[in-house]
Design goal:
Elements lengths: L1 E5 L2 E5 L7 E5 L3 H4 L13 E5 L12 H7 L5 E8 L1 H5 L3 H11 L2 E8 L3 H7 L9 H8 L4 E9 L1 H9 L12 H5 L8 E3 L3 H11 L13 H4 L2
Length: 223
Amino acid sequence: MISATCPRFEVFLSNVRADVRAYVLLPSFRQCAPSTGHDDLPVSVHICLLLPVRRLSGPRLARSGAESTGWTGVNERTFIAVKPDGVQRRLVGEIVRRFERRGFKLVGLKLVQASESLLKDHYWDLRTKPFFRDLMSYMSSGPVVAMVWEGLDVVKTARKMLGETNPADSLPGTIRGDYCVEVGRNVIHGSDSVESAQKEISLWFRQNELHCWEDNSSHWIYN
């Protein structure tokens, strides 16, 4: 049984197969905490049951192997956002093309003018950094294309596809290595862990905005 609690609700999942990964995507702490001024916002719980794309055998299933490489060998979801500079430079189609050609499945996409409240929740861990105010100004300067992608080890693979935070350190062939020059205009955001992906998806998407659909090409992508 998997449980998750918040000051406003409690969720239980039972009778779930051992090989099914269950994510309960909770609202941010700001949305959960009482008397924050967010009471006018709808509170939703995202429950994602992701079936493994395939059963893996060998070293990749070993605990030590997963810890050393970061590869999980299971189906996951990650949050990707094309930042305002990427939207203005008409890079959205190219970025979507790269993820589709890699074999990942798009389950959510929308164009958003992010509010200050949403951006503060998203970048909460960076709130004490000296560049935080400039980051807020940059991310609110235009629309953002928010996406959720699904696939085998998509969190780690997407980070490889994006390149380093500093474009100068990004290899040619990565998105930032091909399209960015400065850190302050690095085109794209991607979740850095499964846990971050859960949080970010719950911030940017409602449950009914994520679509579970059958990908008929999956048997050509996964062995």
